[in-house]
Protein 1
Amino acid sequence: MTVDFHHRLASVASEIEDVLVAIFDVATDPPVPPRLLSAMRYAALGGGKRLRPFLVVETARLLGGDQATALRAGAAIELVHVYSLAHDDLPAMDDDELRRGKPTLHLAYDEATAILAGDALQTLAFETLADGATSLDAAMRAELVRLLARAAGGAGMAGGQMLDLEAEGRFEQTAELSAPAVAKLQAMKTGAILSCAVEMGAVIGRADAPVYQTLLSYGRALGAAFQIADDILDIEASSAELGKATGKDAGRGKATLVGLWGVEKARAELERLTGDALAALAGFGAEADILRAAARFTADRRK
C-alpha cells in the first residue's frame, strides 16, 4: 500500500468534512430545530474513513471531472451512508451501542431523535445534489440524484437490509441462505452504495459508455470485496480497532459468506474479487493507481 494512498484518503476525508460542515452551517428558514441539527452533526462529522466520497472524488479525478462537484456529491453519498448507520444501529435493527468509537446516535440522544436525524440526513443528501451549487449542469445533477436514490432504495441498500432481517428469522418469510442469495443480499445492502460512488464519479467525469461500464465493473467488485472483508473483521478484529462492536454477526444469525464458507474460503473469494477490481482497471495507466490502491486497501484493511 502506497503512502500516497493513505495521504490522499486522509486529504479527501478532511475536504469532505469541510464540505459537510459548510452544508450544516447553511441557514434555513425556518431553521432546523437545534436538537435535530445537533444529532445530525453528531452522526455525520468527526469520524469514518470517508471511503464512499473518496471513490466519488478519485473516479472523477481520473477522468478530469470537476472537483468541487465531486466533493459535494461525495458529501451527499456520505450523508446517505451515515443516515443508514444511524438507522441500522437502532434497537429495531442491529441494536448496536458503538459506532466510529463513540456511542451510537440513539444512545447519545434517544431513539426518536435518531430516527428523525436519519430521515433528515437522507433528505439533505438529495437537496445537496439537486442544488445548483453542486453543478450548473442540471442534467448531471438529475443523474446523480437518480443514481443515489436507486442505490439507497428498495432495490439497493434498504432492500438489502430487509433481506438481512429476513435471514435472521425476524419474519415468517425467511430469506434463502445459499451463497448466491447471500451475495445478492450483500450487493444490495453494501455494494450498491459503494458502486454508486464510482458511478457518480464517472458521471461527473463525463465517461463514455465503455469507460462507464469498466468503472462499474470495478465498483461492483470492490463493493462485494468490502463486505467480505467487513465480515472477516467482525471475527478477527477487536472492537477498539473497528470502533464498533465485533463478534455479533454469528450470534444474530447474520447471513454472511464467512458464516457459510468459513474464513479461509471467504478470504479466497475476497482475493478473487480484489483481482476482478484490479483487472477492470487494466486499460488505465498509472493515473488509476489510486483506485487500484483503494481495491487493495478494501481487502487488507484492519478497520
Protein 2
Amino acid sequence: EAGLDRRRRAWVATMFVSFFCGWAGSAAADSTSTYRVLHVMSYHESWEWNQDQFKGFKDALTGLDVDYRVEAMDTKNNPDEAWKKAKGQSIRVLIDEWQPDLVYTNDDDAQNYVARHYVGSAIPFVFSGVNAAPATYGFTGSPNITGVLEQEHSLQTIRLLQQIVPDVRRIAVIVDQGPTWPGVIERLQQALAADHEVEIVAVDTIKTFAEYQRKILDYQGKVDALGILGVFGFKDEAGNNVPYQNVLQWTAENSTLPDFSFWGDRPELGTLCAMRVSGLAQGNGAGKMARAILLGEQQASDFPMEPTLKGEPVISLARARKLGIQVPTSLLLNARVVTSFRWDL
C-alpha cells in the first residue's frame, strides 16, 4: 500500500507539472502573439485629430506585438456620397480578406460605411470620435462593437467665449450637410436650454461656399457671435470641394464677429476660441478597450459607450487682436494660446 501511495503521489505530481507547464506555455503564447489591427480613419492621415487619436490608441497597446494596417477614407477632402460608398466597400473587402483580430474605426463616416455592416459579426470593433448616438449605426446592444463617444464641451465653450466677450447674447450657428452635425447641434441646444443669458437665434445648414460667404456677411451686426462648426463640405461654383482651411481663413479676414468651435485646430485657422475635445484621450480610451478585448480579458459588450470628459481651452490671441478684444491674462495662463494664424507661418 505504501508503494501504491507513492505511485499515486508521483502520478499526481506529474499531472500537475504537465498542466502547469501547458498553461504557462499557453499564457506565454498569448502574451507574445501578433495581433492584426486594422485602423479605419474617416478622414486623412495627416490631420492632427486623426494622428492624436491613433497615438492615444497605440499608447494603450504598448507591450503587445501589433501588426497595424491603416486605411484612410479621406472624406473631409472627398465628401461626395459616391466616394464614401466606394471607400467603404473597398475597406469591407479588405476586412473580409485580411480577417483582422480587431478593427479600430474613428469618426462617423467610418461607422456609417464600414462598422455598421459588422454588427453581430465575429470581429470586434472599437471606435472613437463618434458624434452620433450609437443607435444611429445599430451599435446599441451589439456584442462585438463598443467605443468612445465624442461629445463636444458645448457649455464650457460658450462659457469660455463669455469670459472673453462678456456681452455675447445672440448666437448663430453654421454647419455643412455632413452627418456629424445634427447630433452636435442637438447637444448644443440641450446644453443651452436652461441658459437665459445666451440664445441660439439661427442654425444654418449650407451647401456652397458662396452661400456661406453671404451668410457670414449678412450676420455682421445682427448677432453677437458665430458658431463655425461644419465647414468641410462647401462647394465652389465648379462643384469642387473648398478646403476648410480656406473657408476659415476667409472668415477671419472678412468677419468682425467673435466665433467659437469645439476642435483644437480651429484657433490656428482663425477661430477665436474652442474648448477642444482631446484626441489623445479619445484614442487612449478606445485603446484600453481594445487591449482588454485582444487579451481575452473582456468582451466588447462589457464596455459602455461613453464620452471622454476632459477638455482643453484654446484661444487665438491673433484673432483676438484682430477683433480688438483684450483677453484676460487669467484665461491665457490656463489655456493653449495660439499667437499667429497658420497662413502667416
Protein 3
Amino acid sequence: MTKYETYSKQTSFDVPKTMQALIAKGAGFENLEVATVPVPQPGPNQLLARVDAAGVCTSIIKLVEQGDKHTFINGWDLAKNPVILGDEGAVTLVKIGDNLKSQYKTGQRFAIQPAVAVPPINHRERYKDAGQGMLKCAVGYTLGGNLAQYILIQEEVLKGQCLLELPTDDMAYFAVSMAEPISCIYSAQERNYHIIKNGPHAQRVPQLGLLPKGVAVVVGAGAMGRMHAELALRFSPRALIISDLQQGRLDEAMATIGEKAKAKGTKLICVLPDKLAETVKAESNGLGADDIILAVGVNPVQQNALTLLGPGGVANLFGGLPRGKHMLEVDALAVHYQEIKLVGSSGGDPSDMSATLKAIANKDIDAGNYIAAVGSLDNAIDVLKMIKEAKVDGKAMLYPNIKHTPLKNVKYWDKAGEIEFLNERLA
C-alpha cells in the first residue's frame, strides 16, 4: 500500500507521548509558538483524535490581539495554561474513553463544529468568575484546537453534538476542514428570507435563502465573497452580480464559477464598484436587487449598498464592521414602503456544518477553489502573519502529521493533489 493508503485506512494507532502544536501563551505574536507538548490522554468520557488537516482561520488574529480578554478565553491565564489554537480541522479517532467504547471506534473520521453551545465543564476554575454566565465555549480557544497533531475531544463537544459524521468516508481531508468556514456562509445565506405571496388571496409564506430567479449581489470578491457567490448558485438567481475594487479578484471569480453559473441558467456579471449601481438597475429592470451579501467590512461600502435594494430586498451584513465604525443609517421609508430587510449572523451551528459537509460532497460548492497554500504545521505562525498583512487570498491548509514542508502556493486543490502530496510528505 502507498503511504496515503496506510495512513487513511489505519484503525490501530501507536500514539506518541508528545506532539507538535500551535500554542498561545498570551496576547501578541511573540506569545505564539509551535511547541512540543504532551499528547492529551482522554478521560472516560473523552476521545483523542489525529488531526489530518487544519485550516488557519482569520478569527485567530483576534485571539492573538486580545489574549485573555477574548470572549472565548474569558480570563483564562494563558501564560499559566497555554491553549492550542485552530478551529478548523478534519480528524480521525485514535483513542476512545472507557465510557464511550460502545459508541465510537478508532479509525472513524469526523468534523468538529468549533462553536460549542454548552457552558464550560472542564477547568471552570480557570475562567473569570469560574465561568459564571458563560453559555458557550470554543474549540481552538479553551477547548484544544486543530493546529496540532492530535486533538482532545472533550465532554463539551460531545454534549453540544458538535462531533459530526461525514456524509461519505472518502471525503478529502482538506474538504472536511473547509466545512467550517463554508458553514458560516451557509448559515448566513439562511438568514436571508423572502415573503412569498402567489396571488391576491394567497397566504404569505416565508422562504429562507436567496430569492430564486431573483437578482443577487455579492459585494467583495475575496475568498469568502467568492464562496458566497458559488453557494448562492444553489438558489439559481437569474442574475448574480459580483463587485470588488480589484479586477484580479473579479477575474478569479469568473474563472472559478463562470461555467457553473451558466449551467444553472444564471447570468454572472463581475463589475468594479463604479459600475455596480447601473448594473443592478439594468438587470433588475430598475427595481433594485433582491439580495445583497456584503462580504466586506467597510462602513461606506455597506451604507451605499443599502440604496441598491429593491422591494422586499434583503441586505446581509456578513462582513463585520469594526467597533467605532459600526453604525449604519437605515432609510425608514424604504423599510416601510419597500419592505427592505437587514439580516446578519456571526457563524454557524452543528446543523449548518452538517448541511455544508453534504453540500461539499454533492458539489454544490468546490472547496478546492478556495485553497491558496498547503504545508506542514510549522508554517502556522507565518500563515497568521500573512493573513494579518492581507498577503493570502484564500485558505492555507496545513497537514499536522507530515514532515516539514515549506508553504506551497496553489491555484486549486483536490483529492488527487492531496493524495499525491501526502504520499510525498508522510513519514
Protein 4
Amino acid sequence: MFKRLECVALYTANIETSIEFYQSLGLTEYWRIKRPLGSGETWTLAGMKFPDEKSSELVLQNNPDLQMADIEFYVEDVRGTYEALSARTDINWIRKPFPTESGHVAVMEAPDRNVFVLVGK
C-alpha cells in the first residue's frame, strides 16, 4: 500500500531565505509551485533535492494555514487506498482524495494522532 517516503514538508514564513539556507547545506531547488489562497494572495511550495538521487525530497511551503511539518507517503492509487482504508475506524480522514497538478492527494490521521499525506495517481 505505502510504496515509499515521498517527502517531508516544512512550513517557513520566508521561502526565499529558507531556500538559500538549504542550498548552503547542499540541497538544490528543482521545482516551485504557486497556489491561490482564499484571500486572493498566493502561497508557494518549493521542492529541494538532496545530493543523493535516491533520497526523498524536502518541500518548503509558506501557507499560513499549514504551519506544521508533514510527512508524505507515495501510494500508486490515492483513491483506491482511501477506499481500501475508509472502513477502518482507527483512521480519521482529514481530507478525502482531491486532484492536484500531478495526481491526487488525501490526508489521514493515524491512531497515534500522527498525520500523513498520501500522494500519487
